[in-house]
Design goal:
The complex is a heterodimer of chains A (604) and B (306).
Chain A: E1 5-13, H1 18-31, E2 35-41, E3 50-58, E4 69-74, H2 77-83, E5 87-96, H3 104-108, E6 116-119, H4 121-129, H5 135-147, H6 151-161, H7 167-187, E7 205-208, H8 209-219, E8 224-227, H9 234-243, E9 250-253, H10 257-269, E10 274-278, H11 280-296, E11 300-306, H12 323-328, E12 337-339, H13 344-361, E13 364-370, H14 371-374, E14 377-380, H15 383-387, E15 398-400, E16 428-430, H16 444-456, H17 461-465, E17 468-472, E18 475-479, E19 484-485, H18 494-497, E20 500-506, H19 511-523, E21 528-533, H20 541-549, E22 551-558, H21 564-573, E23 578-581, H22 590-601
Parallel strand pairs in A: 1-4, 4-5, 5-6, 8-9, 8-10, 10-11, 11-13, 12-13, 20-21, 20-22, 22-23
Antiparallel strand pairs in A: 1-3, 2-3, 2-14, 7-14, 17-18, 17-21, 18-19
Helix pairs in contact in A: 1-5, 1-6, 4-5, 4-7, 5-7, 6-7, 8-9, 8-13, 10-11, 19-22
Chain B: E1 9-12, H1 41-56, E2 63-67, E3 82-85, H2 91-101, E4 106-112, H3 113-119, H4 124-130, E5 135-140, H5 175-182, E6 186-191, H6 195-207, E7 212-217, H7 229-235, E8 236-238, H8 248-255, E9 261-268, H9 274-280, H10 298-304
Classes of the chains: A alpha/beta (604), B alpha/beta (306).
C-alpha cells in the first residue's frame, strides 16, 4: 500500500449517511493538504439500495478515483459483500459490528485483504449519543484516528455542516465524532502501516463538477439561470439559487425544461448572459428551442450532465450517450458549438469559453458533462477563485442608426445585436426564415444567403477556441493550432504526443482515467498517447488529423454502446478505429483502459 | 454577398433624447403590413392596441411583444417595438425571461387559443400564479386558422371542422375562467369589433401591476364562420355595473355564464408581483445591473468550498 496514493471505499445502505461521510472525509483530507478525487453512486430512490463513495487520496494531484480499494468502510454486512471483490491485497476493512462476539471465520472467511477492524459503530452511536443514525460520524472519527488526521478540521467541518440544524445537533455530532476517535485510540490495536503524510500548505478547496460549472458560470458573467430539477444536474441549479441573487441575478425554477430554455432565451434576448443545465431527458425536450436559438441568433449556454439513457434510463449513473443529440439533434440544420470539459478544473474554465462563444457568435453552446464528472469531487487550489478574472455582466445601452437590420449580412456572418432598451434598435426576431431586418421571408435567394451567413459565423471559431489536451507519459499539454499553452506543460514537445504506436482519442470526463492509463502504459514500455478535444463541434481537424496520421493504431474510448465519437471520427477520416466502450453506468477505471492498450500493443 | 452592411452602431448612449410630442397610433406601426385575411378580427385588436400604446405614451424602445405561432402571433411584426416571434406555445416562458432580463420593459404577450390552451397550456397556470407583471392577450378565434381550419381547444361542441368531421366531441375550454382558477390577478374579456372598449381594457391590463389575462374574442372570417361569432355579436354584454371585480366567485360566475358572454374587467386584485418580490431580496435585477453590479464574494466562496 502506498501512503502517498491510496483509495478508500465507503459502502452502506442509502440513507445511512455514506454521502455525508464521503463529503466530510474529502474536505478533511483537503484541509490536511492531500489531493483527492472522489466519486459517488447512489440509487435513484432516496432510500434502499447501495450508496457508495470512493475517494482516492494523493500527495500529488490525482485525476480519477482510482481502481482497487486500499481501505473499505462497510456500514453493514451487506455493504461488505457489495464491495469485498473490489479490494487490493492488504486492504484494510473497517466494519460495523461487535468485536467481542463476531464470528470472524464465518463473517470474513471470504476476505482477501489485510487487517480487519470490527467497530461497534451503531452501538456507540446508540448508547453514547442516543442517536443510532450518527453511526456515520462515529465511523468518521474512527477512520480519522486510524489514519492520523488531526481532529480540529473535522470538528470545524461538522459544526458548519449542522449549523442550520442548531446547537443540539452540532453537539451530538461532535460527540459522535469524538466517541469514534476515542474508541479507536483506546480499543483498536493498529495492525496496519497506513498513516497520512504530513504536508505543508493552507489546504485546498473541494468541488464537484457541478459546483465548478455553477461557479464557472458565475465568473463568466451569467446572471440568469432557468432550469428544472433533474438528476444528475440539479446541484448546479441549487448552488446558483444561493449565489445568483447575491450578485443581482436570477435563478428561475420553471415548470418544465421547455419553459426553462424558453425563459433563458427570453433573458438572453434582453441582454443578460443566461444558461440552463439539464440531463438527457431535458435536452430532448429542449431541442426545438435550440434550433430557435440558432435561427434567431440568440446566445444560449446549455449544460447537459449526461446520465444513462434512453428514456428515464439510469438517472444516477454515468454515460456519454448524448453526443449524437448534442451534435445532430433537432430538426433542420443549424450552427452550434459542443464542448466537453475533461476535469473538474475544466468544468470551471469551460463555462467562460462557452459564454464568450455564445455571445460573440450568437449561437447555442452545449456543454457535455456527465454524472461521473458532475458528482465527482476534486481538490482545487484556493487561489483559483482569487486569480480568475470576472467577466463583465451587461453591456451599456447603445444608440443604433436608422435602417438598423438585426440580421445584416457581414463578412464574418455575425450581425450587430441590439438589445431591448437600445434606442433605434427595435426589431422583431423570428424562428421563421427572415430578411436581414427580421421580417419573415421564404424568398429562395435570401434563404441561401441566410443559411450561409449563419454557418459562416463558426468558420474561424476553432482557430481561437479549438485545440486539444494531449497526454503522454506523465505529461499534459494543451495544443492550439498556432501556439502551445503551457498549462502544467511537462511534455518536452508538442510533436512528442503526436507520434507513436497507440493513439487514444476520447472526449469529456474519461480524460482523468485515460491519462493515467497512458502513463502506466509508458512505464510498461508501450508507446501510447491520448488527446481530448477542447471543442467537439466545430471539429478541429487541424489538430486531430496529425494525431491520427502519426499513430499506428487509433483507439476511441467512450462510455456508450454504439461508439458515437468513434463514428464521428470514422466519418471524417475514413478510418476504422479500435473502440473501447462501457455502458454499465459506471465510469472507466485506469486498469480497464490499460488492459485495452496492452491488448492493442500486442498487435502493433 | 448581395448586401454590404452600413455601419450600424452610433455609439454608447450618453444623454437622453429631447422630450417628444405626444405619440399617435400611427407612430407604433411596424415595418410590415398585416397579412391577415380581410375582415379578420385581429385587425380590430391591432388598432385598439396601437391606440392604447399611444394613449399610454409607451416608448417603443422599451416595449417588447412576445408571441407564439399562429395567425395572431404574427402581430409583433406589425408593431414598431422589440418583438419575439418564437415557437408555438412558448410565448409565456419567453416573455417571463424577457421581463426578468429587463424588468423595466413593458412586456406584452400575444397568442391564439391553440397556442395558449393546447400546445402551451402547461405554461399558462405558472405565469398566472407567479403574478409576473406581463400582459397576456389571448386572441381567441375558436379555430386553428393558420393551418386552415382544425379544431382548437375553444371550438364549440358539435361544430364541424376539418379534424372533427362528425362534430367536435370535446367541450371547449374557457380561458377567462381558467385564468381565475390559476390565480391571475387581472382577468378581462374583450371583443375585436368593439375597438374602443377593447383599447380601454388593453390599457387597464398593461397598467395592472401583475399578470393580466385579456381574452379577446376575435373571429376568423375564413375558417371560423360556424364558431358562433354571429351570435356573439348580438349577445356579448358588458359586465353588470354592480359587479365587484374584487369578488372572485362572482367573476367566475360571469366568466362561465351559460347564456351571456360578458366583456370587461371580470377580476382584479393586488398581490405582490413576482419580480419585485425577487428584487426586494436583492436578485432579479437583469439588465439594470448595468448601473453597478454587486461583486462576487470570493473569500466566502473559498471558505465555503474548503
Amino acid at each position: 500500500m502506498n501512503r502517498n496514493d491510496f483509495v478508500m471505499g465507503i459502502s452502506g445502505d442509502a440513507g445511512e449517511g455514506v454521502l455525508l461521510y464521503g463529503d466530510l472525509m474529502t474536505r478533511i483530507a483537503a484541509r490536511a493538504n492531500l489531493h483527492i478525487s472522489s466519486t459517488q453512486t447512489f440509487p435513484a430512490e432516496v432510500r434502499g439500495g447501495q450508496s457508495y463513495v470512493q475517494i482516492r487520496f494523493g500527495v500529488d494531484s490525482v485525476f480519477n478515483p482510482g481502481d482497487k480499494l486500499d481501505v473499505l468502510i462497510a456500514f453493514s454486512n451487506l455493504a461488505y459483500h457489495w464491495c469485498k471483490g473490489m479490494i487490493s491485497s492488504g486492504a484494510i476493512l473497517i466494519i460495523d459490528g461487535e468485536p467481542e462476539t463476531v464470528d470472524r471465520a464465518a463473517r470474513f472467511g471470504d476476505w482477501k485483504g489485510g487487517p480487519i477492524y470490527v467497530v461497534p459503530m451503531t452501538r456507540i452511536a446508540g448508547e453514547e449519543i442516543g442517536e443510532k443514525r450518527a453511526k456515520n460520524i462515529v465511523a468518521l472519527g474512527v477512520t480519522c484516528a486510524l489514519l492520523g488526521f488531526p481532529a480540529d478540521h473535522a470538528e470545524d467541518l461538522i459544526r458548519r455542516q449542522f449549523k442550520q440544524k442548531g446547537e443540539k445537533v452540532i453537539a451530538s455530532n461532535l460527540a459522535a465524532y469524538t466517541a469514534g476517535r476515542t474508541y479507536a485510540e483506546q480499543h483498536i490495536e493498529k495492525r496496519d502501516t497506513l498513516t497520512i503524510p504530513e504536508i505543508d500548505g493552507d489546504g485546498h478547496m473541494v468541488m464537484s463538477g457541478n459546483d465548478a460549472i455553477a461557479l464557472g458560470a458565475l465568473y463568466a458573467g451569467c446572471r440568469f439561470y432557468g432550469g428544472y430539477p433533474i438528476t444528475p444536474a440539479t446541484e448546479i441549479m441549487q448552488l446558483l439559487a444561493d449565489e445568483l441573487p447575491l450578485v443581482g441575478g436570477t435563478m428561475y425554477q420553471a415548470e418544465d425544461e421547455i419553459a426553462s430554455l424558453a425563459a433563458v432565451l427570453g433573458a438572453s434576448f434582453s441582454g443578460v448572459r443566461a444558461m440552463t443545465a439539464t440531463s438527457g431527458p431535458g435536452l430532448s425536450l429542449m431541442s426545438e428551442l435550440l434550433g430557435l436559438s440558432a435561427m434567431a441568433e440568440i446566445p444560449v449556454v446549455v449544460v447537459d450532465v449526461q446520465r444513462g439513457g434512453p428514456s428515464t434510463g439510469l438517472p444516477t449513473k454515468t454515460e456519454q450517450s448524448d453526443l449524437n443529440m448534442a451534435v445532430y439533434g433537432g430538426h433542420g440544420e443549424f450552427p452550434r458549438v459542443v464542448m466537453a470539459p475533461i476535469s473538474i478544473r475544466d468544468c470551471f474554465n469551460v463555462m467562460r469559453r462557452a459564454f464568450e462563444i455564445a455571445e460573440f457568435y450568437q449561437v447555442p453552446v452545449i456543454v457535455l458533462s456527465e454524472q461521473g464528472l458532475g458528482h465527482r469531487r476534486a481538490t482545487l487550489p484556493r487561489r483559483m477563485l482569487e486569480q480568475t478574472p470576472k467577466a463583465d455582466v451587461v453591456r451599456p445601452l447603445k444608440q443604433w442608426r436608422d435602417g438598423y437590420a438585426r440580421y445584416a449580412f457581414t463578412e464574418s456572418g455575425i450581425s450587430p445585436r441590439s438589445i431591448p432598451g437600445d434606442p433605434g434598435g427595435a426589431h422583431v426576431i423570428t424562428g421563421l426564415e427572415h430578411w436581414d431586418f427580421g421580417g419573415p421571408s421564404h424568398e429562395p435567394e435570401n434563404r441561401v444567403e441566410m443559411v450561409r451567413k449563419r454557418f459562416r459565423k463558426l468558420r474561424n471559431l476553432d482557430r481561437k477556441y479549438g485545440g486539444v489536451f494531449a497526454f503522454k507519459g506523465a505529461g499534459i499539454l494543451q495544443r492550439h493550432h498556432a501556439t502551445t499553452d503551457g498549462e502544467a506543460g511537462r511534455l518536452s514537445s508538442v510533436e512528442e504526443a503526436f507520434r507513436g504506436d497507440i493513439g487514444i482519442i476520447g472526449w469529456g470526463a474519461t480524460a482523468g482515467v485515460v491519462r493515467e492509463a497512458v502513463a502506466r502504459a509508458e512505464r510498461r514500455g508501450i508507446s501510447a498517447a491520448a488527446i481530448f478535444p477542447r471543442m467537439i463541434l466545430p471539429h478541429n481537424d487541424m489538430t486531430i488529423r496529425p494525431f491520427i496520421e502519426g499513430h499506428k493504431s487509433i483507439l476511441v474510448v467512450e462510455e456508450n454502446f454504439t461508439g458515437q465519437y468513434a463514428k464521428f471520427l470514422a466519418h471524417h477520416y475514413s478510418i476504422r478505429p479500435a473502440k473501447l466502450n462501457k455502458y454499465d453506468g459506471l465510469p472507466f477505471t485506469p486498469d480497464q483502459v490499460l488492459s485495452k492498450i496492452e491488448e492493442l500493443a500486442d498487435h502493433v | 454577398m448581395s448586401n454590404t452592411p452600413e455601419p450600424q452602431e452610433e455609439g454608447t448612449m450618453t444623454t437622453q433624447t429631447e422630450p417628444k410630442p405626444k405619440p399617435s397610433a400611427k407612430d407604433y406601426k411596424g415595418r410590415l403590413k398585416p397579412i391577415w385575411c380581410p375582415g379578420c378580427g385581429d385587425y380590430g385588436v391591432l388598432s385598439a392596441l396601437l391606440a392604447a400604446f399611444a394613449d399610454l405614451e409607451i416608448d417603443p424602445d422599451n416595449l417588447a411583444i412576445v408571441s407564439g405561432i399562429g395567425c395572431s402571433s404574427r402581430l409583433p411584426g406589425f408593431v414598431k417595438s422589440y418583438g419575439f416571434h418564437g415557437l408555438h406555445g412558448r410565448a409565456l416562458p419567453v416573455a417571463l425571461g424577457v421581463k426578468l432580463g429587463s424588468p423595466h420593459l413593458t412586456v406584452l404577450i400575444v397568442g391564439g387559443d391553440g397556442d395558449g390552451l393546447s400546445i402551451g397550456a402547461g405554461h399558462f397556470p405558472h405565469l398566472a400564479r407567479r403574478n409576473v407583471d406581463v400582459t397576456y392577450m389571448m386572441l381567441d378565434n375558436r379555430i386553428y386558422g393558420l393551418t386552415k381550419g382544425q379544431t382548437s381547444p375553444t371550438t364549440p361542441h358539435g361544430i364541424w371542422t376539418k379534424t372533427s368531421p362528425a362534430g367536435v366531441v370535446e367541450f371547449p375550454m374557457n380561458p377567462a375562467a381558467l385564468a381565475l382558477c390559476y390565480g391571475a390577478t387581472f382577468v378581462a374579456r374583450g371583443y375585436s369589433s368593439q375597438v374602443k372598449p377593447l383599447k380601454s381594457l388593453i390599457m387597464a391590463a398593461i397598467q395592472h401591476r401583475g399578470f393580466s389575462l385579456l381574452q379577446v374574442l376575435s373571429p376568423c372570417v375564413t375558417f371560423g364562420r360556424k364558431c358562433g361569432f354571429d351570435a356573439i355579436a348580438n349577445s356579448i354584454k358588458e359586465c353588470p355595473a354592480e359587479h365587484d371585480c374584487r369578488d372572485a366567485s362572482s367573476a367566475y360566475q360571469l366568466a362561465t355564464d351559460p347564456q351571456n358572454i360578458y366583456s370587461g374587467i371580470l377580476y382584479q386584485e393586488e398581490r405582490p408581483e413576482f419580480i419585485s418580490t425577487l428584487q426586494a431580496m436583492g436578485g432579479a435585477r437583469g439588465r439594470e445591473l448595468d448601473d453597478g453590479a454587486p461583486e462576487i464574494d470570493v473569500d466566502r466562496l473559498v471558505d465555503q468550498f474548503s
